[in-house]
């Protein structure tokens, strides 16, 4: 680039200087060339009036062209058509004095035919009337920066698109879904999650559910609005928040939350890779209703079963409710040991007692005898007034001999208990004629459920039964 200096108020070319001055000027020019070679920018000097363009070697290297082969017209032709209007507008505004400096970024074609991005920064020299006559500036290759910006822009756009797709996806979920960062601040949520708060706590609380909002602040406001009725009974809001925080560190079990409008939510939480939490809120109100109905029915069945057990022997009861047997008219042959007993003179004693006394006396007697029968493993067939019919060998048998021995042992235990009851009743003025008659017989019988399709009776029939009753 030609070097000119201003001395004594006028411009002088190098050939107008004396030898000593010319030598100093050449030294300055050499230093100028060294500086131009050291900087990364390419420098240009454009004579606006003549169109002459002088550029540094560095600018030529940026474009891959010989510096002396560039003109202002060439430069304009190399500017990308999409950027030329912006470049021209920046030049015009600077020449008009609307800007202190020319600052513009655009693409320019290199010698290879590829476009590179450049940053053009310059300043014009003006005459006394303010008209620009030269433009001096620097060009810097910013292609790398522009590519990085483009990649960053694309990455941001892709991230926004991914976020939008994620938002669309979670909006399609029927449950309420919310994502939190490691500080328990909301990242995003779907409308179902927000609707839980709007429906119970009100729009003011729901409007706070936005990205960046601290979850615990939302919970405090929701509790203050009365949304979470069970919290006060669990130690208050502070204790509840501490409990939830500790559970979030290692979430393993779902949380069930009752809302003030009667709905139940199940909260399932999972830790994310970045230390945050993903929470899914599922409305389980119908499930809780079904559970309550099932619990009520179970309680009803347990009550009914308990009442029914008083009308069946333990063995028969267990066969019906525990064993996989079908309740049907299915008799079978078994060798049983049959037991009959009754109280001597019971009918005469009943005639002279009040009904309350008879009921108390008979219930006491049958309770004690039934307890003994159960202890020995007897199947109580039925109570007939004061008579007891029982047998051994069905539905469970220890063997014919052992069943018979157990029956005899039971009879002896009943006789011992009869003596105790006799003394008690004598002390109460009920007489001392209380005697127990017992008959025992072993033989083959038909045992099972007998009756109609609407009502069955589990019993045994056969010669051994008749023999025991007569004995």
Summarize this, please?
With 471 residues, the chain is of the alpha+beta class.
Give a verbal description of the structure.
The chain has 15 helices and 17 strands. With 471 residues, the chain is an alpha+beta fold. It folds into four domains: 103 residues, Beta-Lactamase (2-Layer Sandwich), CATH 3.30.450.20; 26 residues; 115 residues, PAS domain (Beta-Lactamase, 2-Layer Sandwich); 145 residues, 2-Layer Sandwich (Alpha-Beta Plaits), CATH 3.30.70.1230. It has a five-stranded antiparallel sheet with strand order 4-3-7-6-5, sandwiched between helices. A five-stranded antiparallel sheet has the order 9-8-12-11-10. It has a five-stranded antiparallel sheet with strand order 14-15-13-16-17. Strand 8 and strand 9 form a beta hairpin. The protein is rod-shaped. The N and C termini lie far apart (144 Å). The relative contact order is 0.06. The N terminus is likely disordered.
Number of domains: 4
Report the end-to-end length measured between terminal Cα atoms: 144 Å
CATH class category of the largest domain = Alpha Beta
How many individual β-strands?
Answer: 17
Going across the biggest sheet, name each strand in turn.
4-3-7-6-5
Helical/strand content category: alpha+beta
CATH topology type of the largest domain: Alpha-Beta Plaits
The dominant shape is rod-shaped
Helix proportion = 40-55%
- Helical stretch tally: 15
Name the quaternary structure.
Answer: single chain
CATH superfamily placement of the largest domain:
Nucleotide cyclase, GGDEF domain
Estimated share of beta-strand residues = 25-35%
Outline the low-pLDDT stretches. 1-17
* Main beta-sheet annotation: 5 strands, antiparallel
Kindly state the mean pLDDT as a whole number? 84
Radius of gyration: 53 Å
Per CATH, which architecture of the largest domain?
A: 2-Layer Sandwich
């Amino acid at each position: 680039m030609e070097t000119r200096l201003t001395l004594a108020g006028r411009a002088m070319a190098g050939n107008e200087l004396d030898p000593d001055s010319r030598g100093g000027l050449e030294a300055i020019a050499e230093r100028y060339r060294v500086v131009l070679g050291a900087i990364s920018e390419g420098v240009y000097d454009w004579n606006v009036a003549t169109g002459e363009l002088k550029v540094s070697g560095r600018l030529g290297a940026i474009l891959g062209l010989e510096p002396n082969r560039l003109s202002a017209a060439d430069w304009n032709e190399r500017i990308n058509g999409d950027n030329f209007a912006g470049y021209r507008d920046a030049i015009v505004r600077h020449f008009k004095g609307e800007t202190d400096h020319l600052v513009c970024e655009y693409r320019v074609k290199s010698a290879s035919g590829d476009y590179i991005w450049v940053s053009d920064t310059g300043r014009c020299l003006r005459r006394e009337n303010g008209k620009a006559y030269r433009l001096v500036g620097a060009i810097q290759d910013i292609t790398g920066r522009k590519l990085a910006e483009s990649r960053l822009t694309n990455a941001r756009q892709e991230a926004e698109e991914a976020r939008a797709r994620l938002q669309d996806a979670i909006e399609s979920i029927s449950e309420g879904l919310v994502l939190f960062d490691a500080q328990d601040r909301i990242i995003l949520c779907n409308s179902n999650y927000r609707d839980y708060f709007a429906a119970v706590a009100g729009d003011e609380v729901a409007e706070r559910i936005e990205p960046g909002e601290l979850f615990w602040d939302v919970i405090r406001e929701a509790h203050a609005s009365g949304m979470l009725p069970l919290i006060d009974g669990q130690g208050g809001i502070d204790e509840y928040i501490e409990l939830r925080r500790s559970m979030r560190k290692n979430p393993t079990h779902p949380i069930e939350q009752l809302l003030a409008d009667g709905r139940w939510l199940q909260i399932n939480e999972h830790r994310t890779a970045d230390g945050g939490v993903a929470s899914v809120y599922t409305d389980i109100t119908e499930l809780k209703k079904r559970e309550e109905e099932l619990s009520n029915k179970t309680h009803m069945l347990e009550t009914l079963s308990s009442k029914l057990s008083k009308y069946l022997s333990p063995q028969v009861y267990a066969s019906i409710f525990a064993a996989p047997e079908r309740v049907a008219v299915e008799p079978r042959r078994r060798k049983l040991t049959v037991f009959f007993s009754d109280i001597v003179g019971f009918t005469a004693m009943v005639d002279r007692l009040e009904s309350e006394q008879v009921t108390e006396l008979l219930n006491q007697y049958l309770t004690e005898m039934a307890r003994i029968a159960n202890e020995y493993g007897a199947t109580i067939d039925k109570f007939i007034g004061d008579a007891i019919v029982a047998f051994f060998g069905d539905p469970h048998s220890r063997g014919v001999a052992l069943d018979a021995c157990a029956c005899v042992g039971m009879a002896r235990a009943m006789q011992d208990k009869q003596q105790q009851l006799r003394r008690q009743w004598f002390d109460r003025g009920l007489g001392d004629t209380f005697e127990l008659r017992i008959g025992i017989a072993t033989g083959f019988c038909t045992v099972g459920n007998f009756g109609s399709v609407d009502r069955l009776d589990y019993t045994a029939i056969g010669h051994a039964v008749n023999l025991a009753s007569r004995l």
